[in-house]
């Protein structure tokens, strides 16, 4: 998991994806995109998209080495994602236009990871 190491001086640049809650640095989102959501969020090389689809405000960290076998991953709805570091709660929600696009064009059901009331919908 050394690819996920973040030096203490770089921790202020951590961001969490609002769709899958993976936690990476801003530079990694810019250079690689989201490992789970790049197909429909298109974060790679798009600073405006990174700002609107990721959040610097998140709580708790979960490190998953085998998401398919982890009960924590299942409980947090992370069992279909790649191994890595994930936030337990991500503040903020996707902009309406991005949400509409992923739900209509990509058939992805967006469930906010901020614990808001719309999660139960």
Description of the molecule:
The chain is an alpha+beta fold and 121 residues long. The strands form two sheets. A three-stranded antiparallel sheet has the order 2-1-3. The termini are far apart. The protein is globular, with a radius of gyration of 14 Å.
At a glance:
With 121 residues, this protein is α+β, with helices and mostly antiparallel strands. Helices cover 26% and strands 19% of the residues. The chain has a 3-stranded antiparallel beta sheet with strand order 2-1-3. A two-stranded antiparallel sheet has the order 4-5.
Can you give the helix content as a percent range? 25-40%
Summing up helix and strand content along with how strands pair, one would put the structural category as alpha+beta
Biggest sheet, open or closed, and with what strands and sense?
3 strands, antiparallel
Give start-end ranges of low-pLDDT stretches. Answer: 117-121
User: For the terminal residues, how far apart are their CA atoms?
Assistant: 35 Å
The radius of gyration is 14 Å
Which strand order spans the largest sheet, edge to edge or round the barrel?
A: 2-1-3
């Amino acid at each position: 998991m050394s690819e996920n190491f973040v030096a203490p001086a770089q921790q202020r640049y951590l961001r969490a994806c609002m769709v899958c809650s993976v936690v990476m640095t801003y530079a990694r989102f810019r250079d690689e995109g989201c490992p789970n959501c790049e197909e429909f969020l298109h974060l790679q090389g798009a600073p405006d998209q990174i700002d609107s689809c990721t959040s610097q405000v998140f709580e708790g960290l979960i490190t998953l080495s085998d998401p398919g076998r982890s009960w924590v991953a299942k409980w947090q709805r992370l069992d279909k994602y790649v191994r890595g570091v994930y936030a337990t709660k991500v503040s903020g929600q996707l902009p309406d236009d991005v949400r509409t696009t992923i739900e209509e064009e990509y058939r992805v059901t967006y469930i906010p990871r901020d614990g808001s009331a719309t999660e139960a919908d």
